[in-house]
């Protein structure tokens, strides 16, 4: 177990370095941040001396590898730098927005599991029936619809046409319903199909046939014996999904103007605010890596056949 944890932590560290280096290069490939940060007259280009002053102030006058290594040395000391745009520490900006994203992610996961697990089990129990085919067709359609398109449709139908819910913002439970639904519905659809497939695979296993031979009904066999085993892969998928949600749902947060990590990252990219983008990248890499590790540990706990150290 100890060797496994060390390997996974090393993998998370290497992933963070690789992703951060790639992100750092892509940010500068899109243009020089100094050109955007330099003061200028309205409608005019910034003066070269002002651009050069900005480069020196933010350590942008050195070669890109040196800039990255300097930034990395600050990160190792716990300093994510200051935002070019907001003139505030990046750590404060991220921690300020993270509770909003955390609340949204928790509600999305609760809604996704509350919808997906019962429907997935129902589709498996009623396999090859009209109800099963209808559920699978609806879920396939929901998965095929991009999240941002679904968000726009919900805004138009429920927020604009029916005027049942606010279109954007935050502060009340009503503001969260549309963002949660726009992500939870396709996520739940994926859980339905995934759980249905796992349940049908487990039904054909020897232990399930033995339970049926002892007189248990199909429903009791499915709930008592099949479902616990079928849920193990779902736990892994849900853990990874939750880690992804914690990094911010950029498109959905931008559609609903929800003040979370995703919207902040989008604004930082538009402003070429390198420290904010890089801080968000590091946070995302850590969350995804830790989420993957937790998923493995939970699955190993649920399934005694799995030995992480082997």
Topology (SSEs and partners):
Layout: H1 2-29, H2 33-37, H3 48-57, H4 64-76, H5 90-125, H6 130-144, H7 147-161, H8 173-203, H9 206-213, H10 218-246, H11 250-255, H12 261-271, H13 274-302
Helix pairs in contact: 1-13, 5-6, 5-8, 5-10, 5-13, 6-8, 7-8, 8-10, 9-10, 10-13, 12-13
Rg, nearest Å: 24 Å
- β-sheet strand percentage: under 5%
CATH architecture annotation of the largest domain: Orthogonal Bundle
The helix/strand order is HHHHHHHHHHHHH
The CATH superfamily of the largest domain is known as MetI-like
Overall tally of domains: 2
Give the helix tally. 13
Poorly predicted spans? none
Labels describing this entry:
310 residues; mainly alpha; globular
Q: Quick recap of the structure?
A:
The protein contains 13 helices and no strands. It is mainly alpha-helical and 310 residues long.
Question: How does this structure look, described?
Answer:
With 310 residues, the protein is mainly alpha-helical. It folds into 2 domains: 48 residues, no CATH class; 169 residues, MetI-like (MetI-like fold). The chain contains 13 helices and no strands. Helix 5 packs antiparallel against helix 10 and helix 5 runs parallel beside helix 13. The protein is globular and about 85 Å long.
């Amino acid at each position: 177990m100890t060797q496994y944890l060390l390997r996974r932590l090393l993998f998370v560290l290497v992933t963070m370095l690789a992703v951060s280096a790639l992100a750092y290069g892509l940010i500068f490939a899109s243009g020089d941040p100094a050109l955007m940060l330099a003061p200028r007259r309205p409608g005019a280009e910034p003066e070269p001396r002002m651009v050069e002053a900005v480069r020196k102030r933010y350590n942008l006058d050195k070669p890109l590898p040196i800039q990255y290594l300097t930034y990395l040395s600050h990160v190792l000391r716990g300093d994510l730098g200051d935002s070019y745009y907001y003139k505030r520490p990046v750590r404060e900006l991220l921690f300020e927005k993270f509770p909003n994203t955390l609340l949204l992610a928790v509600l999305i996961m609760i809604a996704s599991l509350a919808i997906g697990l019962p429907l997935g089990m129902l589709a498996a129990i009623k396999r090859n029936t009209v109800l099963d085919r209808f559920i699978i067709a609806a879920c396939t359609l929901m998965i095929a619809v991009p999240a941002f398109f679904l968000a726009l449709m919900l805004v138009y139908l429920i927020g604009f046409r029916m005027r049942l819910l606010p279109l954007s913002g935050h502060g009340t439970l009503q503001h969260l319903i549309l963002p949660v639904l726009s992500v939870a519905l396709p996520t739940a659809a994926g859980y339905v199909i995934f759980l249905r497939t796992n349940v049908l695979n487990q039904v054909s296993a020897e232990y399930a046939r033995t339970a049926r031979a002892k007189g248990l009904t199909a429903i009791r066999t499915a709930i008592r014996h099949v479902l616990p085993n079928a849920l193990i892969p779902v736990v892994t998928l849900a853990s990874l999904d939750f880690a992804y949600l914690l990094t911010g749902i950029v498109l959905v947060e931008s559609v609903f103007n929800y003040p979370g990590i995703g919207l902040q990252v989008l604004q930082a990219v538009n402003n070429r605010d390198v420290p904010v983008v890089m801080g968000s990248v590091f946070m995302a890499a850590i969350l995804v890596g830790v989420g993957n590790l937790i998923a493995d540990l939970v699955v190993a706990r649920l399934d005694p056949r799995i030995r992480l150290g082997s």
